[in-house]
Amino acid sequence: MRLLIIKPSSLGDIICSLPVAQSIRDQLPDAQISWVVKSRFADIVRRCPTVNGEIIEFQHAPGLRGLLAIARVMKTLRSRHYDAVLDFQGLLRSGLMTWAANAPLKVGIADAREGSRFACSHIAPLPPTGKNSHAIRKLLQFLPAIGLQPRLYSPVVMNGDSPDALDHRLQRPRLVVMIPNSRGAHKEWRGFRELTCDLLQADPHCTVVWDSHLPWDSPELRDRDRFVNLTRRSSLPQLIELLRRADLVIANDSGPLHMAAALGRPTLALFGPTSPDRFGAFPPEEPRNRFLEAPDGDLTRLPVSTVLQAALEMLNPAHSQRIAA
């Protein structure tokens, strides 16, 4: 079966889509899975072996340049043949691509926006928990349309690049990776500098690593040997391997949070205005995936002491259990 997945962005949304592609691979080992993606995120899809078909990239741009890029993708999709197209994005842009694609079956989601569902021949229903379900559970509802079970089987594989050339300290054990940024300041907790200082003092064996595609100023530290600032320095493939090494990942609602969860690493997610039920690390019932919600959705009201305590509990579960007893 030749399948096309349309999920151009964002990083977190693409990461949440890859486990569903893996479920397709597990149930249809011979499937050829192609993907439409923005160029800036293409490396992530390319590093996932389950996507074994064509990766169709386009550059996001405003105005006429953006329209021309979409038109080129539409022209490419008309020239290919697929057995089914899965519009995981559900927006006008992806709807146009779905409409142009040469396939007898085109599947969209019930809560699609901007009229994109009218390009589809079949609409996947929402999960029983409705529109507030987790993104992965929503995307699994596409699978019955192509004769598959809406469940996950094996973990998704993502191949990265070693980050060791960036800093030799990344080879140390007991790494705590922090991701201070998110998509929008309202989703960014501002306590990472203080948390870093307090965690390094409370746990003398850990090394804290910051990573982000945006630059962040380092905190003032006495012991700088156990802090590594990789912000604006690492590539997405290097981030994959960094997260794979982490003993704990502390992050806002962001793409790297979902990447860490997909890699099976312990995560501590910090949520403000967005819902951890919809956007948290998956699966939420796994003990390794923990989240903290700010009072009234206001991240300025989430104390550093609360985050520090949760981080220490996850790093030292046996010690925390002794204290509780």
Under CATH at level 1, the class of the largest domain stands as Alpha Beta
With strands numbered from the N-terminus, the spatial order across the biggest sheet is: 3-2-1-4-5-6
Q: Tell me the overall shape.
A: elongated
The CATH superfamily of the largest domain is identified as Glycogen Phosphorylase B
Care to describe what's here?
It contains 11 helices and 12 strands. It has 325 residues and is an alpha/beta fold. The chain has 2 domains: 2-146, Glycogen Phosphorylase B (Rossmann fold, 3-Layer(aba) Sandwich), CATH 3.40.50.2000; 168-324, Rossmann fold (3-Layer(aba) Sandwich). The strands form 2 sheets. Strands 3-2-1-4-5-6 form a 6-stranded parallel sheet. A 6-stranded parallel sheet has the order 9-8-7-10-11-12, with helices on both faces. It is elongated, with a radius of gyration of 21 Å.
Which terms summarize this structure?
six-stranded parallel β-sheet, alpha/beta, 11 helices, disordered C terminus, single chain, 2 domains, elongated, 325 residues
Question: What's the arrangement of secondary structure elements?
Answer:
Layout: E1 2-6, H1 11-27, E2 32-38, H2 42-46, E3 55-58, H3 63-79, E4 84-87, H4 92-100, E5 105-109, E6 122-124, H5 135-140, E7 175-179, H6 192-202, E8 207-210, E9 227-229, H7 236-245, E10 248-252, H8 255-262, E11 267-271, H9 276-279, E12 289-293, H10 304-315, H11 317-324
Parallel strand pairs: 1-2, 1-4, 2-3, 4-5, 5-6, 7-8, 7-10, 8-9, 10-11, 11-12
Helix pairs in contact: 1-8, 3-4, 6-10, 10-11
